[in-house]
Sequence to fold (229 residues):
Amino acid sequence: MTAMLQISDLVKSFHQPGGGALTVLDLPRLEIRKGEQVALIGQSGGGKTTLLHLIAGLLVPDTGSIRIDGTELTRLSEQGRDRFRAAAIGYVFQTFNLLPAFSALENVKLGMTFGHGQHDVSRAKDLLDRVGLSDRADYRPNQLSVGQQQRVAIARALANKPKMLLADEPTANVDPVSADVVLELIRTTCREEDVSLMIVTHDMEIASEFQRIDKLDEINRAFAASHSV
Ligand SMILES: Nc1ncnc2c1ncn2[C@@H]1O[C@H](COP(=O)(O)OP(=O)(O)O)[C@@H](O)[C@H]1O
Ligand SMILES: [Mg+2]
Fold:
């Protein structure tokens, strides 16, 4: 079996502040192969972040199946999902989410804490080196440019040798030149580490770098339903 991610009949709705429920996602099928790199493009509000949260086990679907490398996420308890995420998933946020009181190197090491339970300092240093920041290991996030902060976040997300990296608009908050660097670093390090990559974006310029571009708004029945008059 070469599938890394297999989603079928996935439905997620939210209670609305004004009452009632809104179905955000209704995905019949989405698959990613091992080592594959996919850009999922979709409108703002189209459910991209929700989908990544479901795949990371931070949210649970109403119905449907999410299988990652053979593990059915929806059968796990909350604690089981936390463990699975720590061991198998890397996550790069739009806003980096680095811990401000810690150095770049410490932030990368923190990506290892909940996984195999050990800090592999040489791997943390190697990852910082590979994102071009070996000379910034002792800098705190506020002493780094935003592009550098996102590069630390990439190193942290890969620290635990995940099976899959999820990246949520990872270049949206960096300048265009750094955006190219950040995107290329994500792609190269995933390739080198044999990590499957799913990046979500509303930006066609970013998506067009990828061989496989999936259009969320077309495969998401909930979007189609809310946008047909
Ligand atoms: N916790 C929540 N409660 C209610 N509605 C939510 C919640 N999270 C997201 N939504 C709604 O779900 C839709 C999709 O949001 P999101 O997944 O963040 O979209 P995207 O990342 O594509 O911009 C939006 O309409 C948003 O308002
Ligand atoms: Mg989003």
Q: What stands out?
A: Residues 14, 24, 42, 44-50 surround adenosine-5'-diphosphate (ligand 1) (CB under 6 Å).
